[in-house]
Amino acid sequence: MASITDRLADAAATRAAAVRRALDAPERRPRSAVVIGRMVGVGFAVCFLTGVYSHLQQHPLEWLPLPTRPVELYAWTQGTHVAIGTALLPLVLAKLWVVYPRLFAWQPLRRPLDVLERGSIALLVSASLLQIVMGVLNTFQWYPWSFSFVRTHWALSWVIVGAILVHIGVKLPMIAANWRQPGDDR
User: Which residue, 92, 103, 120, 84, is CA-closest to 36?
Assistant: First the structure.
């Protein structure tokens, strides 16, 4: 006779498999995750760099001279930051849609690397969504929170960059295998 934990594990595995089948779609493949992930990565990189430039303009370092000409440079970098940051919302949601069934993989934590992967993904997704929503609300100058937008936005950007680097490191074999479409001779 099977123990209660064996029966619960079997029931959870059966339900997880049913959810995976129900969510399965041709678009939910590793190749799609890599393609969308590249766009998300480039978007966050541009937002990070333009955000660092903005932060250094507002909080200059004495030893680091920054260009102040042309006069429109700051406006262009901030316009780029806001436009790409806003465009990241549907891209991040698309990436989540593509990888969502993986949340139902059974056993979720088979090896120590899985703990790092799941933890970094949880941090990356939560920090990214918070960062994007805060940024969009900032464009409307609406601050329904009591903390400093600038300090929190700045700190979250570093958390996101770190989580992206961990995510890429953990997923590098899958990324390399799916970087190009089969048959690409580039």
Answer: 92
Whichever domain contains 148, its CATH number is: 1.20.950
The boundaries of the domain holding residue 91 are: 21-178
- Quote the CA–CA distance of 90 and 94 in Å, as a whole number: 6
pLDDT tens for each residue of 107-137:
667 778 878 888 888 999 999 999 999 999 9
Rg of the chain taking only CA atoms, in angstroms = 20
Q: The whole model's pTM is what? A: 0.79
38 falls in which pLDDT band (50, 70, 90)? Answer: very high
pLDDT higher than 90, residue 150:
yes
* Ranges assigned E (strand) in the chain: none
Which DSSP symbol is given to 91?
Answer: H
Alpha carbon distance 43, 33 (integer Å) = 15
Q: At what angle do helices 73-99 and 112-139 cross, to 10 degrees?
A: 130
